[in-house]
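Section 5: illustrative case.
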């Protein structure tokens, strides 16, 4: 490293996953990284940055997510007073190689005229880490090796024969209590039970955490060597990407031309510069209901219960109620997850198979497979309560200071009834303020807008009536969030 340059650690937070193994709580429209799964103050995405915000040399993060989730990411970062360096919007998921390549190129562009040596800390947005001090120590111990152009991957010493994780084999045995880099030998995909039993007895094997640390230039050089087409497409993509409010919308054609591959396969299996540093910090990627049960607080019977739940003669089970009262009697090793529109019941040992069931539901056309009953928008959210062929009832929550677009509908009229808070309503040329138990009617074809002018939440009931009630029945005239479609 050029000794004149100041080291800066730039967190690259990968937030593009769908988390389908945690269905029905996690779905494509609102996946697990945006949910508070551990009953504390923050969502998994927020915790990802909060656990490193006091690290030496740390910089503001770059976050990579699906464009569908851009406002969720923006809102959650704002809620913890973090302004990302950039939020990169993927037109579709192409695994970690294109995402990391784009992020590294962007970082090099941001710091090209500055006296800074950018070090990239690649983080997944859905991990749990209990021992923050050990996590920080592992990162600090990686700096010297990373500045010598080595590529670091953090390997977690296995504590049980997990079949849901990938493994890394190193050339020498790892000492979990020492943060010494050991050369990578090979990567192994998720093993069967027998193979996993063997791995935990051999100190050369560790869980693949999916977290990496390296110089921005170092990873670009290795991508150039081993995945040159990805690099070429990403350079073209970044050149043609467009700024959209607080986001950078990645150019679609070039990005989709990238090979769908993980950085492990594209680079780390081929390079001679890959090293493992042990990460002994109570790590879990919360990849299944069983793994969530393992790290959750439990009662004396080993049960993790959340919401309106009553359990009798029940052991070692995870029962989660979002809405209705759930009663369990005489159960053992069972997962029950209740949401407003779906219920999952499975043996905890089968929770890795939930992803396959979600794929089957998608094939059969079940909307519940990917979309929540609650739909999130940049201004708040809405919940569909009940509907018929020509009518629909929704509960709408508008954030303080937020505003829906100035819009009209071609096929429906609407009634708004405020139940909590204060609403500013524009219908045609008329503007008025309404409060609880007051209502307003929006005729079919009328130009209208709803706003929350206060610092308190606004909740109202919307009754729609018309021949077509789809979310695409909308024409926008003005929108503070730059949207063209709902």
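Designed sequence:
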């Amino acid at each position: 490293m050029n000794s004149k340059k100041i080291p800066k650690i730039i967190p690259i937070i990968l937030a593009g996953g769908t988390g389908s193994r945690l269905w029905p709580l996690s779905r494509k429209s609102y996946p697990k990284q945006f949910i508070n799964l551990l009953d504390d103050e923050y969502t998994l995405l927020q915790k990802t940055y909060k656990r490193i915000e006091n690290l030496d040399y740390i910089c503001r993060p770059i976050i990579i997510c699906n464009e569908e989730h851009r406002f969720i990411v923006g809102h959650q970062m704002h809620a913890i007073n973090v302004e990302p360096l950039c939020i990169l919007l993927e037109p579709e998921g192409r695994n970690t190689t294109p995402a990391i390549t784009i992020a590294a190129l962007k970082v090099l562009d941001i710091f090209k005229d500055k006296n800074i040596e950018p070090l990239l800390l690649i983080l997944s947005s859905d991990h749990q880490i209990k021992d923050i001090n050990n996590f920080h120590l592992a990162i600090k111990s990686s700096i010297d090796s990373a500045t010598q152009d080595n590529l670091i991957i953090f390997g977690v010493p296995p504590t049980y024969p997990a079949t849901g994780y990938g493994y890394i084999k190193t050339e020498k045995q790892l000492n979990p209590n020492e943060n010494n880099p050991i050369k990578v030998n090979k990567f192994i995909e998720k093993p069967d039970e027998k193979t996993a039993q063997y791995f935990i007895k051999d100190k050369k094997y560790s869980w693949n955490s999916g977290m990496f640390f390296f110089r921005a230039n170092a990873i670009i050089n290795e991508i150039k060597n081993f995945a040159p087409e990805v690099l070429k497409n990403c350079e073209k993509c970044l050149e043609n990407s467009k700024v959209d409010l607080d986001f950078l919308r990645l150019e679609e054609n070039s990005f989709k031309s990238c090979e769908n591959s993980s950085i492990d396969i594209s680079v780390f299996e081929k390079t001679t510069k890959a090293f493992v540093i042990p990460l002994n910090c109570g790590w879990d990627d919360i990849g299944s209901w069983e793994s969530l049960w393992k790290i959750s607080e439990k009662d004396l019977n080993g049960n993790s219960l959340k919401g309106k739940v009553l359990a009798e003669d029940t052991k070692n089970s995870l029962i989660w109620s979002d809405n209705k009262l759930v009663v369990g009697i005489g159960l053992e090793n069972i997962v029950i997850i209740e949401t407003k529109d779906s219920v999952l019941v499975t043996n905890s040992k089968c929770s890795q198979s939930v992803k396959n069931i979600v794929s089957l539901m998608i094939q059969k056309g079940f909307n519940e497979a990917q979309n929540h009953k609650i739909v999130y928008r940049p201004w708040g959210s809405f919940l569909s309560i009940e509907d018929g062929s020509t009518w629909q009832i929704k509960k709408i929550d508008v954030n303080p200071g937020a505003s829906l677009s100035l819009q009209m509908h071609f096929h429906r009229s609407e009634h708004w009834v405020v139940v909590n808070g204060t609403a500013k309503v524009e219908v045609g040329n008329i503007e008025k303020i309404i409060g609880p138990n007051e209502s307003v009617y929006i005729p079919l074809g009328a130009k209208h807008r709803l706003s929350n002018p206060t610092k308190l939440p606004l909740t109202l009931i919307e009754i729609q009536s018309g021949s077509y009630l789809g979310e695409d029945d909308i024409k926008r005239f003005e929108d503070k969030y730059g949207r063209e479609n709902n």
